[in-house]
Write a structure and sequence with these properties.
Layout: H1 2-10, H2 21-47, H3 54-64, H4 67-70, H5 76-97, H6 104-117, H7 120-148, H8 155-162, H9 168-193, H10 200-231, H11 243-259
Helix pairs in contact: 2-5, 2-9, 5-7, 7-9, 8-10, 9-10
C-alpha cells in the first residue's frame, strides 16, 4: 500500500509502463566507461614504451601515424583517434553527471551518509566523483593538445613538455586521477553485472593490484620522460629520429642529387 500511495502521489501510476531510458542510459554510461578505462590502460603501455628506449617510443608513435603502412607519417590519423576518444569522454561525462549531487545540501547528505555507514564501495564512489571532476578538465586539456599537435608525440618533444614546459605536475595529477577513476569504475561495473563470478573482497584485491601496478608504471614512466627532458634542457625543441631513418633519408637525398 505504501508503494502504491507513492506512485499515485507522484503521478507515476498514470504511466502505461515504466520508462526504459534510465536503464539504457546507465548501460551506455557503463559501456563508454569500460571503453575509456581499457583505452587508458593501453595508452599507458604505449607511453611507457619510453622505458625500452627512445626508438621504441618513436616506433609506436609512427605506427599510429601510418608510417610503416603508407611509407609516410600522417599525424592526422592520430587526431582521428583522439577525436573519437574525446567524444566518448564527453558522452560518458554527461551521463555520469546526472548521478552527481546537484546542490551543496545534497553533497553534504551524501558525504554524511558515507561517513556514517563506513561503506567501502560508497567511499570509492565519492573518490570516483572527485577524480571524474578533475579528469573532465585535465583529460580534456590533454586531448586538446594531442588533437591539434599530434606531430609532437615524439620522445624528445614529449620529454620537453614534462621538463622544459614544466607540465610534470599536470601529468602527475592526471595520472593519479585516471588510474583511481578507471580502477574504481571497472570494479563497480564488475560488481554491478556480476562478472566475473567473484566476491567483492576478491574484486577489490584485483582492483587495487591493477591500480597499484599502473600507478607504479606511470610514475616510473613520468620519471623517465623528466630525465630525458632534463638532459635536453639546453638544446631547445629537438625532435628524435632513429639513426636508421636518418641514413634512409640521407640515401634518398643522394639518389635525388645523382638523378639531377
Amino acid at each position: 500500500m505504501f508503494h502504491e500511495t507513492i506512485l499515485i502521489q507522484t503521478g507515476l501510476a498514470d504511466r502505461p509502463r515504466k520508462s526504459r531510458w534510465p536503464a539504457r542510459l546507465d548501460l551506455l554510461q557503463g559501456a563508454t566507461g569500460l571503453f575509456l578505462a581499457l583505452f587508458m590502460w593501453l595508452h599507458m603501455f604505449f607511453v611507457a614504451s619510453i622505458l625500452l628506449g627512445e626508438t621504441a617510443m618513436w616506433t609506436i608513435a609512427k605506427f599510429f601515424e601510418g608510417y610503416f603502412i603508407f611509407g609516410k607519417a600522417y599525424p592526422w590519423l592520430v587526431s582521428c583517434v583522439v577525436g573519437f576518444v574525446a567524444l566518448m569522454l564527453v558522452v560518458h561525462a554527461l551521463l555520469a553527471v546526472r548521478k552527481f549531487p546537484i546542490s551543496f545540501q545534497q553533497w553534504r547528505t551524501v558525504r554524511a551518509h558515507a561517513k556514517a555507514m563506513r561503506h567501502g564501495d560508497s567511499t570509492m564512489w565519492l573518490w570516483q566523483v572527485y577524480t571524474g571532476f578533475l579528469m573532465f578538465f585535465l583529460a580534456s586539456a590533454h586531448l586538446y593538445q594531442m588533437f591539434f599537435w599530434p606531430q609532437d608525440i615524439n620522445p624528445y618533444l614529449s620529454a620537453a613538455r614534462f621538463w622544459s614546459d614544466g607540465l610534470w605536475p599536470f601529468y602527475l595529477v592526471l595520472l593519479l586521477s585516471v588510474e583511481l577513476h578507471a580502477g574504481i569504475g571497472l570494479y563497480r561495473l564488475a560488481v554491478k553485472w556480476g562478472w566475473p563470478n567473484a566476491s567483492r573482497q576478491t574484486l577489490q584485491k584485483v582492483k587495487w593490484t591493477l591500480t597499484g601496478f599502473f600507478l607504479v608504471l606511470g610514475l616510473v614512466t613520468l620519471a623517465a620522460y623528466m630525465k630525458i627532458g632534463y638532459e635536453l634542457r639546453d638544446q631547445g625543441r629537438v625532435e628524435y629520429t632513429p639513426e636508421w631513418v636518418v641514413k634512409k633519408q640521407e640515401g634518398a637525398h643522394r639518389n635525388q642529387g645523382d638523378g639531377q
